[in-house]
Specification:
This protein is an alpha+beta fold. It contains eight helices and eight strands, in the order H-H-H-H-H-E-E-E-H-H-E-E-E-E-E-H.
Length: about 230
């Protein structure tokens, strides 16, 4: 299995992406900072062995899967690509014959972890937002809070589903929104929360979202949840 850094080299040298080398380097640097802090959070909360096992079995996304993701979402964040090249999903993902469920992300919901979906799942779920939230964004239901930065036209929905919560996505899901309202920002990170239902913009982009988790001290990693 190629190393994380070799995977980056192979992908970027063979890609048609017009993203500058500087932007790719910045994306990789942020991911490395995020992962270093996450590893320390696991260590501080009695999860050192869990992290060590995770590092042993996981691998990054295959180049063909990254290309498929770029085809489906041409404006996909280079930082998300960099994260996927490190690990291709943690949501009951099979690695080395073992099904792995590993907390990698969080949100504004305190002490509540999320799984990263695989690159293949992100492509397969590209119509999920329209199927599940079309009526919500059209504001057809009273009592459902929808951020004004989210479009009101369900036919414009272009969301990349990248994470599901610990409850198998039943309580909360995370998306990158490429079809915002005029007051929103393309690439903003959106969080859906159930009961009470709410769709909220968490950050203007995926980079700001990761920085939010860093600044929050990785509070979604809790010792009592690591077994």
């Amino acid at each position: 299995m190629p190393s994380f850094f070799q995977s980056l080299i192979n992908l970027f040298t063979g890609s048609r992406s017009q993203t500058s080398p500087e932007a790719k380097a910045e994306a990789n640097a942020l991911v490395q900072q995020y992962l270093a802090g996450l590893q320390q959070a696991y260590a501080d909360r009695n999860g050192r062995q869990l992290w060590g096992h995770f590092e042993q079995v996981k691998h990054g996304a295959a180049p063909e899967n990254i290309k498929a993701l770029r085809r489906s979402f041409p404006r996909v964040s280079e930082t998300l690509i960099s994260l996927l090249l490190y690990v291709d999903g943690t949501y009951h993902r099979e690695y080395a014959g073992e099904r792995l469920a590993f907390y990698l992300l969080g949100s504004d919901v305190e002490q509540y972890p999320y799984y990263l979906l695989s690159s293949q799942e992100m492509v397969e779920n590209r119509r999920l937002a329209l199927e599940c939230f079309g009526d919500y964004v059209a504001r057809r239901y009273e009592g459902v809070e929808i951020d004004d930065r989210i479009t009101r036209n369900p036919n414009r929905l272009n969301w990349l589903h990248f994470a599901d919560c610990i409850n198998n996505g039943g309580t909360s899901q995370l998306f990158i929104d490429f079809s915002p309202s005029p007051t929103g920002t393309p690439g903003q990170v959106v969080r859906y929360l159930h009961d009470p239902d709410e769709i909220k913009v968490l950050a203007d982009n995926f980079e700001a979202y990761l920085q939010m988790l860093i600044d929050g001290g990785y509070d979604f990693i809790q010792a009592d949840m690591l077994g």
